[in-house]
Amino acid sequence: MIYRKIEARQFKFGDKLHWVVNVPKDLRTPGTGSRRYFSGDKKAASDYAQQLTDSRQSVGGSGEFTKLNNAQQAALISGLLKLGPDELLEAITYWSNRKPTSTLTVSAAVDECIEAKRRACCRDNYLATLRCSLDSFARANDKLLHEVSSADVETWLNGNNWQPKTRLGYLKDVSTLFKYAIKRGLVTRNPADGVDRPRLDQKVIQFFNVEDCQKLLTAVKLTDPSLIGYIAPILFGGLRPQESGRLTTANLRAGVIDLSGPQAKGRKRRVVKIEGLLRQWLALPFAAPQQGPAVAYGSRNLAKRLRKLAIVAGVTWSHDVLRHTFCSYAMEKLGARDAAAMAGHSEQVLFAHYRQIVTAEAANAFWNLTPDSVNSQLQEYKPTKKKKKCNSTPSTPSTSAPTPSTAPSKSSSRATKTSTSHTSKSTTPRRTTPTRPSTGS
């Protein structure tokens, strides 16, 4: 729509010159007329005309506003004039917050966010976890970043049958993405803030009892003794699995485990005293870690060795079970203060999760699991391994068995197989955990 130019016009009234500005209908306010007169003051009249022109352009006269017809423009101006100053400011703020500021897609924003975190020296395991969750979010929301709403985030979270803890972690990752975008000026709001966070129930701590610890330590000495350099600092020193995986001989000095910032959680130096059981287990010749990481936490090699160890020992392995075992027995034996110092936890965390979940007798038995006590059980312990599949003869000789020089008949062979199967069923205990065939030692 083309508007007539707003300008001051001169007219003569009597012997004096005056100026007048015609006020367009769409810019009139209630209680004002269609003209504004100025007595002999050309500058004031010109300034007022310019003010009206600027007001029209600020509303949108030179952009989207010009695409509206007269009725729509009138309705828009009328609505704005009915708003008070506070309401008008609130409307402008709301519109500004929803105004697109970038044409970046969700997938491209994910790549930028991950790269920014990498430049900020975030650890590889965090970047891998963040990439996994955000890639899933990007696949479900193939759109521009500023178009993502809270409903989109909630639909993605609730549409994959994830557990509440998983949904909570993924929601935090999405919030991380939009916080990065806000700092870069890509968007002006975080849709993750509009999603209710899942509430989590406190789960029961999973830990090894004393008998399981005896089985585990016996099995590791028999099958993979080099793992003691990884297991003992967690089970008897309270290190985290990641910290123990980064342990080297350079960290063992003057009776302490001295972890540097890159090795410890939170990137802060951590010192743990080597006392009691931990000193005895680390004194074994095969317990000292090699130069470099003893095992790489999260690597395929470590996971495979720990799975095999659990099968041989006949124990159920769960997430962080070694550290949970340490905290449970240390809380009962050493008290909250000393246990928290060794574990790198706060006393409040220990009270909330580990208070009085083991008895004093069990704690005393745990802290007496010395290498010598485990050695005394090596002769009695029989590792639980799956037998190899082979054609073996029954343990009890049969009177119908053929001589070595005589070929067995079909009937005698069938009888031998039947006798073997009945014997194995009656003598071999049922296994509750499926295992793979052993590759031999």
Attribute tags:
hpI Integrase, Chain A, DNA polymerase, domain 1, disordered C terminus, single chain, 3-stranded antiparallel sheet, rod-shaped, mainly alpha
Written account of the structure:
With 441 residues, the protein is mainly alpha-helical. The chain has helices at residues 42-59, 70-82, 85-98, 106-119, 124-140, 150-158, 164-183, 210-223, 228-235, 241-245, 276-282, 300-313, 321-334, 336-343, 347-354, 360-366, 371-375, 410-427, and strands at 8-13, 16-22, 35-38, 252-253, 256-259, 270-273. It has a three-stranded antiparallel sheet. A three-stranded antiparallel sheet has the order 4-5-6. The radius of gyration is 39 Å and the shape is rod-shaped. It starts with 7 loop residues before the first strand and ends in a 14-residue tail after the last helix. Mean pLDDT is 78; it is low at 392-441.
